[in-house]
Amino acid sequence: MTQPNEKISEAELVVMEALWERAPMTASDVSDRVAAPRDWSAQTVKTLLSRLMAKDVIAADQDGRRFLYRPLIARDDYVAGESGRLVNRLFGGRVSPLVAQLAQQDQLTADDIAELEAILKGLKS
User: Phi-psi bin for 86: left (phi > 0), alpha (psi -120 to 50), beta?
Assistant: First the structure.
């Protein structure tokens, strides 16, 4: 699985999260999972599915009269690509300024810090 050629919007990401969690799903299944909390119509969900198909990040397999949608990109691959782009764009490819920024904004919990320390310790060994 590869990175998408086009950026996935916030709304499209909601649909992707549903598909990553449980695929394949029909458009109706996706709508049932994501539409109500966001006050979206079923047509909005179908539009988002169409956009994701056009971006080649999901596929649809015909199952009788319906289509079953599934992701073509793994969530981990997407997250890795997006986080890499964020670090490159905002921090010149360096991770430590990102962590420093989060620390300065008091966005790192004690658990976050412990997790980071464990990751760094693992990288050193």
Answer: alpha
